[in-house]
TrEMBL record:
PANTHER family, sorted: CELLULOSE SYNTHASE OPERON PROTEIN C, TPR REPEAT-CONTAINING PROTEIN MJ0263
Lineage: Bacteria, Pseudomonadati, Pseudomonadota, Betaproteobacteria, Burkholderiales
Alphabetized InterPro entries for the sequence: TPR-like_helical_dom_sf, TPR_2, TPR_rpt, Ycf3/AcsC/BcsC/TPR_MFPF
Protein name: Tetratricopeptide repeat protein
Species, as recorded: Undibacterium flavidum
Domain of life: Bacteria
Keyword Repeat: yes
Length: 397
């Protein structure tokens, strides 16, 4: 049985690297190590082509003319009858005014999210914060302690967390004393997904580091590894305590086959967050590449004790079953993966394909519709919509 369990994790480790986007999960078991100074031998600029674009932290929260006009026309008029926080919320998320849609494909700055009217949770938090600060409101960022979501793109696997924002009272009102009754939390997940969840306050420099780490991960998806390096370097400089930026740097070095440099970056990540399964997984690969087999095996045993079945394990087995025309087996495996991640669109899509190949057209339609509803990018939404429409036409025939 132990040998079989090793094969499960081996498949994931051979499949690809693991990055973390949007937010890190803080360790609850081991006290984190504080990184006071960034190690001098961590960066190797000479390995990477210069960035084709400037990377400027202040631009992330910049408020452009369109945003200022929005405040003047859509928000100021409400202030006679409601609070600043409620006026901003109404203007941003009321269907009659600015209609925002969730899009996880690209982490946007405040002005980009406002212009596109879409963004992932971090983009929308950044945009809301920029508008709130322009109005003179105080803001507090929060990590929401929810279960990590997993996704993938080619050989890259992503674990993502969630952030929201608390709008405080207008600055300098009533002697500037905090009043919890005047605070408003704005979240971009349905209330049932975050109800009763605990939160951890975050500083703005951590939000900046998250943004840059996201941009690094998105650059890697587009095979822009050189650009990813520069985003990651700036993420670490923004918040030296943000462990997952070191993990991303480690993955970048792994892609360049600079395994000793990868080891050094991942070692820092694990000093900050010793319980990170994401970093541990990448460290196992790095140790194996360095020929340090005993250390790799010991760390793999630790990983197996924490995570016997890696993310996407049953899904990948289901895809293989589909390739063998074993559709009943595939359906069982996709359902098993959905028990761990009930909202992930790709799992529902493939379950719908399994139902379709079994002639279960009504069930297939249901799964395709769920996949469409849970899609997080416009590209996936378009794909699932087209598949759903074709199935609908087929059922009518």
């Amino acid at each position: 049985m132990q040998k079989r369990r090793h094969s499960y994790i081996d498949r994931l480790l051979r499949t690809g690297f693991i990055l973390f986007i949007c937010l890190t999960e803080l360790s609850a078991c081991v006290a984190p190590h504080v990184v006071h100074t960034i190690p001098q031998d961590l960066f190797h600029d000479d390995l990477f082509a210069a960035s084709p674009q400037p990377i400027s932290p202040p631009s992330i929260f910049s408020v452009d003319k369109a945003m200022k006009d929005f405040i003047a026309t859509e928000i100021v008029s409400q202030l006679r009858s409601t609070s600043h926080q409620r006026a901003l919320f109404n203007a941003l998320y009321n269907r009659a005014q600015l209609r925002l849609e969730y899009d996880s494909s690209y982490t946007r700055t405040a002005s980009e999210a406002f212009s596109a009217r879409s963004g992932n949770c971090l983009s929308l938090v950044i945009m809301t914060a920029a508008l709130a600060k322009e109005m003179g409101l105080s803001v507090q960022y929060q990590k929401v302690l929810v279960k990590e979501d997993w996704s993938r793109s080619g050989e890259l696997y992503f674990a993502s967390g969630h952030v929201n924002i608390v709008l405080g009272k207008k600055r300098f009102d009533e002697k500037n004393h905090p009043d919890k009754n005047l605070e408003m939390t704005i979240d971009f997940l349905p209330p049932q997904d975050t109800a009763g969840q605990h939160t951890i306050d975050l500083e703005e420099n951590t939000i900046v580091a998250m943004y840059m780490n996201n941009r690094a991960a998105e650059s890697m998806v587009r095979n822009q590894t050189d650009l990813a390096y520069w985003w990651t370097k700036e993420a670490i400089k923004a918040d030296p305590q943000f462990s997952y930026a070191y993990n991303t740097l480690g993955v970048i070095y792994m892609r360049h086959k600079k395994y000793l440099d990868a080891y050094r970056a991942l070692e820092v990540a694990l000093r900050i967050d010793p319980d990170s399964l994401v970093t541990i997984s990448n460290m196992v690969q790095t140790l194996e590449s360095l020929g340090r087999g005993t250390e790799a095996r010991n760390l793999k045993e630790h990983l197996l004790s924490k995570q016997p079945y890696p993310p996407f394990h049953f899904f990948n087995l289901g895809v293989k079953a589909m390739d063998k025309n074993e559709f009943q087996q595939a359906k069982m495996l996709f359902n098993k993966e959905l028990q761990r991640a009930p909202d992930y669109h790709e799992f529902h899509f493939w379950l719908g394909l399994a139902h379709f190949r079994l002639g279960e057209l009504e069930a297939a339609q249901r799964e395709l519709d769920i996949a469409k509803a849970n899609s997080t990018t416009q590209k996936d939404y378009a794909l699932y919509s087209a598949k759903s429409d074709r199935l609908n036409a087929l059922r009518r025939q």
